[in-house]
């Protein structure tokens, strides 16, 4: 979660470099400078105004995140449909095309006029933060849409609040600092083609999100090859095909580093997939399987899984293909998978209630008597080394 939030914060920072937001920097700094009053600038007043601005930005986006998360149950059910997944992916690709410059996203003039109104006092700073998202929507809207869809699929209001608060802090933090140290405005890089390049970078991020949603319904081969293809295309486009230019001396190096990084990631993905060995062999949940495990004095691992659950797929792709996990699972455990991708199955609903499963992934561990070891329950992704520790602890806790 820490790395996820840092990535989202970095995304918020990067959004300041898009053509829609970057021109707001001198406007915002001038606005804050005016708030400090005439004569010698009052730094404390600038800090308070900057804080109000940040809180306005956080409030707007956080409400969006919470609302999206509160629809999580509905969204989770909707995401079981291949048609809906295809539509979501198509919408994300459409917005990515906007960031690539193939079409332009424009807001009604009335909304822009409302956002451009000037209000005095600390409320003016708060209002400016509240409406920054409207002014910047043509650039940040597609990116925010991707985050909204992800938060809705998770369904946790606190996560929605945290994610969009972090994004807002990343988006507003540079403007906050520049408002306080407005004399540094002259040192900012000049606007130019490099901002178009950053916008295209965000477009490839949205393309990655589209693959994330469409991947569960793809054939096994495409599940691995399509992400690799997108990463390769992003690397070639951002690194060498795109002709955006800038006065910054480091800009060609930045483009080359981005391209090489994408190519390296694609190579690592292909290599990992190619050398991946066989996975864990699973049983469907039946009372006979449980009784057989008790008779054989084998502990049981029950994996509650869904195709639309990203951590579930990580478990399948990484943990349950790890050689040591596969070996121990085959020799010492009975492995059971309950696939709840398609809702409405009465038997699965009964199992969810019986084992008090509130979401996926949930991995339940039973001892050799068929009793749950509740202190070993897992409800989030864990790397293979940690999962092996859990498997070892089962042996210590079973009679």
Question: What's the short version?
Answer:
66% of the residues lie in helices and 4% in strands.
Give your account of this protein's structure:
The chain has 399 residues and is mostly helical. It has 2 domains: 2-217, no CATH class; 287-397, Glutaredoxin, CATH 3.40.30. Helices cover 66% and strands 4% of the residues. It contains 17 helices and 3 strands. It has a 3-stranded mixed β-sheet, with helices on both faces. Helix 1 (2-15) packs across helix 9 (157-180), helix 2 crosses helix 9 (157-180) and helix 8 (137-154) packs antiparallel against helix 9. The radius of gyration is 25 Å and the shape is globular. The two termini are 36 Å apart. The model has no long low-confidence stretch (mean pLDDT 78).
For the record, give the distance between the C-alpha atoms at the N and C termini, rounded to a whole number: 36 Å
The percentage helix is 55-70%
Q: What pattern of helices and strands is seen along the backbone?
A: HHHHHHHHHHHHHEHHEHEH
Mean pLDDT: 78
Order the strands across the largest sheet as they lie in space: 2-1-3
**β-strand amount:** under 5%
* Cα-based radius of gyration, to the nearest Å: 25 Å
Count every beta strand, where a strand is a DSSP E run of 2 or more residues.
3
**What class, by secondary structure content?**
mainly alpha
Tally of separate domains = 2
| Overall outline | globular
The number of helical elements comes to: 17
Largest sheet: 3 strands, mixed
């Amino acid at each position: 979660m820490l790395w996820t939030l840092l990535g989202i914060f970095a995304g918020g920072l990067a959004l300041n470099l898009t053509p829609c937001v970057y021109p707001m920097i001198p406007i915002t700094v001038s606005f804050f400078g005016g708030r400090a009053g005439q004569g010698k600038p009052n730094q404390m007043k600038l800090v308070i105004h900057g804080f109000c601005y940040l809180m306005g930005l956080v409030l707007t986006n956080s409400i969006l995140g919470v609302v999206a998360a509160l629809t999580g149950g509905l969204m989770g059910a909707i995401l079981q449909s291949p048609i809906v997944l295809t539509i979501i992916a198509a919408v994300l690709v459409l917005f990515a095309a906007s960031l690539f410059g193939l079409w332009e996203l424009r807001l009604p003039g009335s909304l822009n006029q409302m956002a451009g109104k000037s209000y005095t006092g600390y409320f003016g700073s708060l209002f400016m933060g509240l409406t920054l998202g409207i002014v910047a929507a043509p650039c940040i809207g597609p990116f925010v849409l991707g985050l909204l869809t992800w938060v809705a699929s998770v369904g946790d209001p606190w996560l929605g609040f945290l994610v969009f608060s972090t994004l807002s802090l990343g988006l507003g933090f540079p403007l906050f600092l520049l408002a306080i140290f407005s004399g540094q405005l002259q040192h900012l890089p000049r606007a130019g083609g490099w901002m178009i390049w950053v916008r295209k970078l965000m477009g490839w991020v949205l393309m990655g999100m589209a693959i994330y949603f469409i991947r569960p319904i793809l054939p096994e081969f495409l599940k691995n090859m399509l992400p690799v293809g997108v990463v390769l295309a992003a690397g070639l486009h951002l690194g060498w095909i795109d002709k955006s230019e800038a006065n910054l001396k480091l800009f060609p190096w930045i483009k080359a580093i981005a391209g090489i990084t994408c190519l390296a990631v694609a190579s690592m993905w292909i290599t990992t997939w190619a050398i991946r060995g066989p996975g864990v062999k699973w049983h469907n949940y039946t009372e006979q399987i449980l009784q057989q495990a008790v008779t054989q004095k084998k502990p049981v691992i029950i994996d509650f899984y869904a195709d639309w659950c990203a951590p579930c797929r990580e478990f399948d792709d990484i943990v349950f293909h790890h050689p040591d996990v596969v070996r121990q699972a085959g020799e010492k455990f009975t492995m059971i998978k309950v696939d709840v991708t398609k809702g409405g199955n009465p038997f699965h609903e009964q199992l969810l209630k019986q084992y008090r499963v509130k979401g996926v992934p949930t991995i339940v561990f039973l001892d050799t008597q068929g009793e749950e070891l509740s202190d070993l329950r897992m409800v989030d992704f864990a790397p293979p080394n940690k999962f092996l520790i859990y498997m070892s602890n089962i042996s210590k806790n079973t009679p």
